[in-house]
Write a structure and sequence with these properties.
This protein is mostly helical. It has a single domain, classed as Amino acid/polyamine transporter I (Up-down Bundle), CATH 1.20.1740.10. It is about 70% helix and about 0% strand. It has 20 helices and two strands. The longest helix is centred in the N-terminal third of the chain and has 34 residues, at about 85-120. The two termini are about 15 Å apart. About 50% of the residues are buried. Mean pLDDT is about 80; it is low at about 360-380.
Length: about 475
């Protein structure tokens, strides 16, 4: 008798997964990025968060509509197959398995390790210790998901609640503090004074600030990976996607306003959001904040690992990809695709190594004699003569961002095909997909705008991996 994934997750877990995956470490620092991008214009910054959140919600709404009709193993792959056919669905699943899931999962493992070390006063994000701890976190989260998926689901809920505590605390306390405290010599309360920095709105500045929000909002699509394991998925997955993304946007905006109430715009731009925490709650909270950030990253890592462990399985379940019989096997005890999970872990480890090698490339020329920089160094980047470090221009790419935008590019054909589904209302079938297409195109343009030559190198790697996937699409042995 064929074994199938059992219904083990409820609506609360699904919502927690959406919120938990999207709300990661980035939210604690994006406030400073947005302030810099908007030149300290607080109203413009809130508008940027609204636009970025709107793109996320519109895309999530479209997939939520698709979820009411399709319920199989891997949500996005199911939707791609229904809209664009089996070949497109397979290539989408192959991309997510080989690039998307392991790339962002490995980065979250590194972030978890980095902030854990900072709790103990070890500011070593590029050290071997950080790399080793990141690998340890990958293995630990993998083991929890592979051996006890129910515990992993409960951890996801707990981590989501924990990470929302400092965000909610700052949103409430920061707003109150900002409305009641006046800076020395000021006639207005701090928050009102900060909002008075509005400069009338510049479209170029707005574009740059929305780009800064784009990656903070990513991750919600991963929740579709458990639609076959979600109780009453046709009702609960749409609810989770819609409610979860709306909650994320509200939390981000509330936190942004709260941070603005804790310090002047100039201070926040120079020193970051932790200054607001220190001003309101004292210096002890600085360490506590790092603990919350580490837990936040681990919660996000856990949610992403759920998708990683099911990557190859989602293809094998369709009798596609390499050795489908091997990778479609489920463990009789845990009801988990163990072979698929092992491949997911190995891919995460490989991409973690790449992230260190490509994105922390300053180690390559540490203590290097700038006067003797050879042609290879000049080819891959720009050497800083003062710090003896290199900034990679194109011989490498940011594996934490570009793969995410690639997924938005893959959404576009799905949204176009969705317009042909007559069973949906005109609003769901035409209006929302059009907005989703516009938002997805914007994300692609933003990536090219921000990464330039890095995109060119990424496309080479992307093409090689996708051609490999096409070569193993139809297995000879079933």
């Amino acid at each position: 008798m064929e074994k199938k994934l059992t219904k083990k997750y409820g609506l609360l877990t699904a919502i927690a997964m959406v919120v938990g995956i999207v709300v990661g470490s980035g939210v604690f620092f994006k406030a400073q990025n947005i302030l810099n991008a908007t030149d300290g214009d607080m109203p413009l910054g809130i508008l940027a968060w609204l636009i970025g959140g709107a793109v996320m919600i519109v895309c999530a709404y479209c997939f939520a509509t698709m979820a009411t009709k399709y319920e199989k193993v891997n949500g996005l792959v199911d939707y791609a197959e229904a809209a664009c056919g089996k070949k497109y669905a397979y290539m989408t699943g192959w991309f997510m398995t080989m690039i998307y899931y392991p790339c962002i999962t490995s980065v979250l493992a590194w972030l978890s390790a980095r902030y854990t070390l900072e709790v103990f006063g070890m500011m070593e994000p590029t050290s071997g210790t950080c790399l080793a701890l990141a690998g340890l976190y990958l293995c630990a989260i993998y083991a929890m998901n592979a051996l006890s998926p129910i515990i992993a689901g409960k951890f996801q809920v707990s981590a989501t609640v924990i990470k929302l505590i400092p965000l909610t605390l700052m949103a409430v306390a920061g707003t109150i503090y900002g409305l009641t405290v006046k800076p020395d010599g000021a006639s207005q309360a701090l928050l009102i004074q900060n909002f008075a920095t509005a400069k009338g709105g510049n479209t170029d500045i707005l574009f740059g600030s929305v780009v800064a929000t784009a990656f903070a909002y990513e991750g919600w699509i991963v929740a579709t990976a458990i639609n076959a394991e979600l109780k009453d998925a046709k009702k609960n997955l749409p609810r989770a996607l819609t409610l979860g993304t709306a909650i994320v946007m509200c939390v981000y905006i509330a936190y942004y306003i709260g941070v603005a109430g804790g310090a002047t715009v100039e201070t926040l731009r120079n020193d970051g959001a932790t200054t607001a925490f220190t001003n309101i709650f004292g210096s002890v909270l600085g360490t506590i904040l790092k603990v919350f950030i580490a837990i936040s990253c681990l919660g996000t890592l856990n949610g992403l690992m759920l998708g990683c462990t099911r990557g190859i399985y989602s293809l094998a379940a369709r009798n596609e990809g390499p050795k489908p019989k091997v990778f479609s096997e489920l463990d009789p005890t845990t009801n988990m695709p163990t072979n698929s999970a092992i491949v997911g872990l190995l891919l995460c480890a490989a991409w973690l190594f790449y992230f260190f090698a490509a994105n922390l490339a300053s180690l390559f020329v540490a203590n290097y004699d700038a006067s003797s920089a050879n042609g290879f160094i000049k080819l891959i980047g720009t050497l800083n003569a003062e710090t003896n470090t290199i900034s990679v221009n194109w011989f490498g790419f940011d594996s934490s961002e570009i793969p995410i935008v690639t997924l938005y590019a893959m959404y576009i054909p799905i949204f176009f095909k969705m317009m042909k589904f007559k069973e949906f209302s005109p609003f769901k079938r035409i209006v929302m997909p059009i907005f989703a297409i516009i938002g997805s195109i914007f994300m692609v343009f933003a990536a090219v705008y921000a990464h330039k030559w890095g995109v060119a190198f990424y496309l080479i790697v992307f093409a090689v991996i996708m051609l490999w996937g096409k070569a193993v699409m139809n297995p000879k042995e079933n």
